[in-house]
From TrEMBL:
SUPFAM superfamilies xref list: Homeodomain-like, Regulatory protein AraC
Molecular function, one GO term: DNA-binding transcription factor activity
UniProt KW DNA-binding keyword: yes
Keyword Transferase: no
Key words of the record: Activator, DNA-binding, Transcription, Transcription regulation
Name of protein: Helix-turn-helix domain-containing protein
HTH araC/xylS-type domain mapped to chain residues: 183-281
Domain of life: Bacteria
Pfam families: AraC_binding, HTH_18
Length: 298
């Protein structure tokens, strides 16, 4: 399998691609295409969840090899090298999901608990059966055509990720007051970043001075508040550039930029490419990936 970077997985039907944020398939269907060996690669935009219910194999995560002894779950955040070798008897599912599409609280949990690739044995997990059945529901719902499909998929993914969270995660990685404030700040930014609010708006909502808030942000992330907001704006702009055929001007207005030319300069400063150039480059990558997925489904 070749290296996949900044990719978006979506269904082969172009009419469905505008609201895509998740892909699901069996491990057998994916790995059998490559003689059950998935070479080292990474997904720069996606989180992957593997649930192995039967068979055996090895997982290469960040250069280290781990033996897979089912039932096992593997969570691979975006941006990390990973590869797999499976037996021909492998059974299970692989889910690829856009983290930005998940609720803010779930994203915060991911950052706190699954900041790096993690292999979890489910042999003695109290919710092993629940996780297995929920994963099966995701596969079933992924192939469904109904209005509540995306809402159900979001709820199932949330359930799986929260159930996979180790019960002692809070003990191992306690979320202090500042970390809790960062979760709250993330929720506020999600709700108001299109309004281009000033720093004092967020500080007031959190009952802090602007100086104190910036100090917390810097200590927790190494960023400034404006950099966090800009990151959210760029992330959302990229989603809309990929997921829709709306013009750059329309996307700029949707993100609260009254001047599309200023939005283009902002995006170029943050990414090194104009919005149009970035969109074309990504669509070219996705055309190759769609062809690859089409081969996988035949």
């Amino acid at each position: 399998m070749t290296s996949v970077q900044n990719d978006r997985l979506y269904g082969e039907d172009g009419t469905k691609s505008l609201d895509f944020w998740l892909h699901c398939e069996t491990l057998y269907s994916r790995s059998s295409l490559h003689r059950f060996e998935i070479d080292i690669h990474r997904h720069d935009s996606f989180l992957q969840i593997l649930h192995i219910s039967d068979g055996e194999g090895d997982a290469s995560l960040e250069g280290r090899t781990h033996t897979i002894s089912p039932p096992t779950a593997i969570v691979v955040p975006a941006g990390f090298d990973h590869g797999f070798r499976f037996s021909h008897a492998i059974k299970g599912l692989i889910i690829t999901v856009l983290p930005a599409a998940l609720p803010a609280a779930v994203r915060a949990n991911l950052q706190n608990t699954f900041s790096r690739p993690t292999l979890l044995s489910l042999r003695d997990h109290p919710d092993c059966d629940h996780i297995h059945h929920t994963m099966e529901r995701i596969l079933l719902e992924f192939g469904a055509e109904r209005s509540i499909r995306n809402a159900l998929l979001e709820s199932y993914i949330t359930t799986v990720l929260l159930l996979l969270t180790p019960e002692n995660a809070t003990t191992r990685q306690p979320m202090g007051q500042d970390a809790e404030r960062m979760v709250r700040l993330g929720t506020l930014i999600d709700a108001h970043f299109r309004q281009h609010q000033r720093a004092d708006f967020y500080a007031d909502h959190m009952g802090l001075s602007t100086t104190h808030l910036n100090r917390i942000i810097r200590s927790q992330t190494g960023l400034t508040l404006q950099q966090m907001i800009a990151g959210k704006q760029v992330e959302t702009a990229k989603q809309e550039l990929i997921f829709s055929h709306a013009s750059v001007q329309t996307i700029a207005l949707h993100l609260g930029f009254g001047d599309p030319a200023y939005f283009s300069r902002f995006f170029t400063r943050e990414t090194g490419m104009t919005p149009r150039a970035w969109r074309v480059a990504e669509w070219q990558k996705q055309a190759k990936l769609t062809h690859y997925l089409g081969k996988a489904s035949t």
